Structures are given as structure tokens and as C-alpha cells.
Amino acid sequence: MRPIMLKGHSRPLTQIKYNREGDLLFSVGKDGIVGVWYSHNGERLGTYDGQMPTALWTVDPHPESNIALSGGADNEVHVWKVNGGELIHRFQFETTVKQARFSPDGKQLFAIIEQRMGCIGQTVVFDVPEDLESFSDEPRFLLEFDPKERAKVTTAGWGYDPETGIVLILAHDDGWVTKVDSNDGSIIESLQIHDKPGTITDIQFSTDHTYFITSSKDKTAKLLDVKTLNVLKTYRGEAGINTAAITPVKDFVVLGGGQEARDVTTTSNRQGNFESRFYHKIFEDPIGRVTGHFGPINTLAVHPDGTQFASGSEDGYIRVHNFDKPYFDFLYDVEREAIAASKH
Amino acid sequence: EDVAAQSAQAREVMESRRRLLSEWTAYRANIAAKLPKDLFGVKESAQENIE
């Protein structure tokens, strides 16, 4: 797999996301720039420059791909027009925005606001207006967790429970996850998933949002069912895992991470585990790795059609890999048997 | 004896994988049966990818 190298950020990447069609890749980094790239050739469509050169932590295109949001250390969520880059709304908060995402139906967005001295961390949910322009600063609901009872929320995502519809899944700094009603913010269930301290670093969903993968500093990634929060599978890595994604088409998951940034200068690339590691989703076996970064991988995204994946690293580069034929041909014997049986 | 032991172990692994695959297939089929056709307006091709 020969990668396409995307060079446009001067500092570490913090998040990358494909739009629903997969033709665009959005990126943010500690340089405060939002990058938009054509995924098929790595050409840059443009950048959205913020008002202040502060680190950005999160980016997300709306499912319709006509607006996108970004959030970061300027304590704001910015909503941009994808075409032209016009800033159409700014949500302002007390502290850093660590994560923000549109719901899969495009009707809501959440922002995770960092816990700081004197400020309790918040999860704030807003309705997205039908015209995608006239946003209101009045949240649908706001959640705060008492730090004495539950560790701060580190990341979150939108799940789909076949019986109740869209729910919010919050991931905490102590390895717990919380399922929240997306209409009124009521807590449905909380469970410990990763061993303490077990900071959950990323959460990404299947195409239908009915199951998801969490990555953790406890060197594991776990696959969970949205409805029950049951752990379906566990993948064990060799270093802290910063990010994990589920691949459509093939039954794989991919994990990224590596040695902490502060230890990078004392660590060779090989020892640092700066690689994307593929596991069989169902059998939990490691099946392959893709090297190339010279710093920890902070963020991974898989094309919605399952044809490529991209990794963003502390080294400031995005590497886009198109999957080749052996990737699609790879099957365990039992999978071949099952396919053959289904044809008879 | 080594060959026999290895062969028994390989059979065990195959059986375990068959069971895991069958459980996963049943889990996904159960969910798919409950999903609306136009979930989030996902493209038809992407819907196929769900399975």
C-alpha cells in the first residue's frame, strides 16, 4: 500500500474525518488550521483559518457535507461552510472544546467542554437548524458530572439503539462509558469498560451506529453494542492506543497509537509502535500493520466505502492508504466455508 | 504424537472460529432486522456495507 502523504499542518494532527460520501477528508491539528482534502488524490481543497492560532482538537463534517464544525483551545466551536469556508456560527464556552460531532441524522451536535480548575467539564447538545445556518446558542441540554463521582468525559459519539433511536455515548477518563438519551439528556446507563485509569482516547462507530469501538491508554480497544453496552470483542495492543476505527466491507478494526509524545525522542520508530495495526474484528487476531509515521498516531479514519484509510500523527503528517487487492481477498478458511455455504 | 496434537489443536481453533463467526452473523442479522430501510439517509451501497 503506497501512501499519499498530506503535508499541510505544521504541528501534530489531532483529528481527521471523512465526510459521508468519502470524497473529502477533514483534518485539524495543534497549528489551529482546519484542512480539507480530496481523498482520492490528496489534493488540498482549502483551509479554514481560525481567529486565533490555538490548537484545534476536533473536526466533523455534517452528513450533508455542506457545513463542518471545528473546536479547540480558543474555547469555541466554529461552524463553517464547506464550500468557500465562510464562518457561519461560533459557539462560545468557558474552557477548551475537546470533541464535537454532528449526529448521524444531522439534526443535533454535541460539544465536550474540558474540565479545568474552577470549571466542571460539560457535555452540551444543540439542535441543528433545518437551513443549517441560523444556529441558536440555547442548548437542548447540558450535562455535568460531579468529579467526585465520575471522571471527566474525554470523548463521545452518537449511537443508534434499534429500539429507542439515536443515543449519545460518552467516554470517561476512568474507563467508563455512559449512554444518554439524545432528547432530554437523561442518563440511561453507565458501565466500566476499561481498567482504571483506562482513559478512553477515541470512540468510533459502525456504519449503522449500532456498535462502536473504544481505544484506551490501558493498551486495549473494545467493541461494544450500543443497546446493551456489552463488550463484544477486545483487541490487545503493545502500547497506549490513541485511536481505533471499524472498517466497512471487511471484518477488521484498525488501531493506532504508540509511545507517548514526550518519549518520542528517546525511542526508535520500531520500538515506538508508530503503526496502524489491523485486527480481525470477529476473531480478535492481529493480522497486519502499516508503518511509516515517525511519531505516535493520534487519529485514524476509514473511508465510508472501506476502500482506504488515513492516519494523522504527532509527526504532522496525514498518510492516506488505498487498500489493495490482497486486503480485500484476505479471508480465514472458516469465512470461505461460510461464503461457499451461503451460495448453496 | 506431536503431529496428532497439532492437528487436534488446529481443529479446535477452526471450531472456535466457526462458533465466533456464527455468533457474529446471528448478532448482526438480529440487529439488521430491526433497522429502518432509510437509516440516517445512508446510501444504498453503504447500507449493503453494513452487513
Automatic annotation (TrEMBL), chain A:
Transmembrane segments: none annotated. One of its GO terms (cellular component) is eukaryotic translation initiation factor 3 complex, eIF3m. Keywords: Cytoplasm, Initiation factor, Protein biosynthesis, Repeat, WD repeat. SMART domains: WD40. GO terms for molecular function: RNA binding; translation initiation factor activity. It is found in: Cytoplasm. WD repeats lie at residues 6-47, 62-90, 193-234, 290-320. This is Eukaryotic translation initiation factor 3 subunit I. PROSITE patterns: WD_REPEATS_2, WD_REPEATS_REGION. It comes from the Eukaryota. Component of the eukaryotic translation initiation factor 3 (eIF-3) complex. HAMAP family: eIF3i (MF_03008). InterPro entries: eIF3i, Quinoprotein_ADH-like_sf, WD40/YVTN_repeat-like_dom_sf, WD40_rpt. It comes from Tortispora caseinolytica NRRL Y-17796. Belongs to the WD repeat STRAP family. Belongs to the eIF-3 subunit I family. Pfam families: EIF3I. The keyword Protein biosynthesis applies. One of its GO terms (biological process) is formation of cytoplasmic translation initiation complex. Component of the eukaryotic translation initiation factor 3 (eIF-3) complex, which is involved in protein synthesis of a specialized repertoire of mRNAs and, together with other initiation factors, stimulates binding of mRNA and methionyl-tRNAi to the 40S ribosome. The eIF-3 complex specifically targets and initiates translation of a subset of mRNAs involved in cell proliferation.
